[in-house]
Design goal:
Blueprint: H1 6-16, E1 20-22, H2 30-47, E2 51-58, E3 61-68, E4 83-85, H3 90-103, E5 124-125, E6 128-129, H4 132-136, H5 161-167, E7 181-182, H6 186-199, H7 203-215, H8 226-230, E8 257-259, H9 260-272, H10 276-282, E9 286-287, E10 294-295, E11 305-306, E12 311-313, E13 322-329, E14 332-339, E15 344-350, H11 355-372
Parallel strand pairs: 7-10
Antiparallel strand pairs: 1-3, 2-3, 2-15, 4-8, 5-6, 9-11, 11-12, 12-13, 13-14, 14-15
Length: 375
Amino acid sequence: MRTRFIVPVLFLAAAMQNSAWAAETPAADPVLAEASDLAAYVMFRNSGAPGMVVAIVHDGHSLVVGFGETEKGNGHTPDGSSVVRLNSITKVFTTEVLASLVVDGKLRLTDPLQKYAGTAKVPGSGGRQITLLDLATYSAALPREMGNRPEGVGPRSWPTRDDRWAWLPGYQLPWAPGAITAYSNVGFDILADAMETATGQPYPDLLRLRITTPLGMADTSFAPTTEQCLRLMVGSGLDGASPCVDTHATGGSGGLYSTGNDMALWLRHNLDDPTETLALSHAVYRQRQTMPAAIGFDEAGPMAGLGLGWVITAGDGIHPMLVAKGGGGAGFMSYVAFAPGRGVGIFVAINRVDFETFSGMVAIAKGLVASLATR
């Protein structure tokens, strides 16, 4: 490397003594390795987190790198098998399941939610009913949360399906569905409930049968085994560590656990599989300039449009258009993004909740993608 990088390289050399690397194709892509080493380390140093896992994909090759510690002070470096919480990245798994059901003719994006609500009355406004597309594009006029989590209940374990459907009929929509985009967690859990009703299958089974099992994502689920829980990194920061528990209650919005190795597989799937399901999932359904307001989407850069769960950021200078999603909570922050048609994607997770550092972490991740997506 050039001499102006002498100090960072010295830091990098020291850090690499405490880092663990795992790759599906070791040394198969020297460009990927060269582009990622310093950038990934700087991302970790700037995060202030005890540990970090990064998965990077380039032209069909992938690399997973871990830095720091799985828990502050334990001396154990994370790697591609370390379990992390995906938080709101869960939503784009939910919408991929949705798209696959649409392709199979099990439901339609334009279906009203009422069709899958049983005897519960789904609220509407302005003569407009909530559709599945509204739920999947944050435009159902539902709040971010139903309310505060009850005391003594762990993150991602509430609200349950019964809680949601007891609450929904009494909620008054503040505007007509489809009029404004505003970030909502509860809307994606209700979307997962609707898919259960449409198919007669529990949502975790739909996810397993349609995505994680076909892709070999053995560590991605809502109910980690005892062995997987031992591999869970320990969260820190704003809301501290959370127990390793079943989180299917928020399976549509934020409950997924995964690993860097699994996320590398999933990124390659999103980049390389030319399926109708992914075309539906990645398409832009809501353009920012057509909405009177777009609330809660710019933490990882200005949102230009919304796919099914995905946040689309426009290309700018050397930075390509990205299909992206971030997440935070339960002791972790995460970000996933890929450049369509460029063969480049990245996933990063840190075991510390700190929203002030999140934008810096995302900026470095985007810069790394830009360095590899030059075509």
